[in-house]
Structure of Regulatory protein YycH domain-containing protein:
Amino acid sequence: MKKSKLEVIKSIVLSILVILSIYLYYKVYFDYKVEDLVKAVDIYRNFQSEQQLLKKSRKILASPKEMYLNISKNVAVRVLSNQFQYSQVVSKFIEGIEKALVKKEFEISLRNISANYFKQKKVLILSYGYQIDFNTFVYELTRRNIGNAVQGFEFDRIFIEENGTETVLYFFNSQKQRAVVMRFSSFGFMPLEDSIQKDLKLIYSWSDSLGFTEIANKDILIPVEFSDVQFSEIKTRESSYKKELIIRRLFPDTILTRRNILKNGDVIITDERRTLKLKNDGSFVFEYSENGFGEKVDSISDALMFYLKTFYTEEDLRICKLELQKEGDFKIYLLTRANGIDVVAGEGESCAKIEVQGGRLQKISGYLFDILKVRTSQIKVDGIAAIDAIKERKGDIFIEEIDLEYISGGASSYPYWKIKTQSGVVYVETIK
């Protein structure tokens, strides 16, 4: 009897929970107010500690444009940023190098080395697509100076080689064919490598192994097979939600804040010290009225942390370019990704730019948009077919780089093949 009553009570509680979930679903998707969502997200952000923001900023800095597991000269597996292995590789890389530098348990050297050295090896490849100052990169991730062993060295790729007892990091300069080599006790990448190798969907090969050296750089990876991979068609639109959220974060004191709407539709919000301009084309500019008013910024991580506290709304971000001018002066260019693929907004090649001068934040500019997934489909035009299409259209070409990229604005679209040649960039549709 008691058991029967207990079952009845459980059924009633379950029914109430189901009804409540349906009600909340309705409220969120059909009856919500933008300001309510803004408040909810803002409350969550305020609970994030400085340590969490620092961890996130370091992860953005260390996130590569492209990640691969090279198995042989003919097979390299691409890992997109929306795959769980991507995040785990980046986290393990940061954690391993930070611990080793704190304990001073590493060896470091500088050597001449060809990209050919890595093509036959089983190595993880982190490719950044821009030159990064080695000392700055290591300091930002660890808050430790590497010493005078390496000065003025820049890299654009990291090769990670691991056996049972040792992890070797090669910070590789593709142009000079030189690398800073760091040796550590094992970081534990091998289980992740095994996980990646089981998922052979995005297959690449080195250009020279395909016999493409007459039409492509021999040291780039060419996509050869994308089996059973669904890519989303996306559409971008202006984001009222993000605008309201950012205004609330930057100008919490509404008494001192003025809002003006210009004839062209642009909106300007200011408190005399800071100004946010929301343009009618979806772009924005945030800046300080005087240099001395800017937030004090001691590092790239500090600048990224300010961005995370004010403009970030859980996008998949990476740095696409760093301009280090002199101490205290630098610019950070950020890109948003959808489905693990870069999304280019507006006329520029970045979605946001952070400018620091004299150790103080001066300006942040970029685009505010939502990404909507329309439908999914498998790519119909693979990388080899895209190269053939360009050869037919352009004749003699020499390919320096090939990758997938979304172009935002206008109608919805699937990613394009972005093929960088010596004579310019060409886009080829992946689905016709």
Observations:
- The chain has three domains: 2-47, 63-197, 235-372.
- Residues 26-34, 43-47 have pLDDT under 50 and may be disordered.
- The longest strand covers residues 123-133.
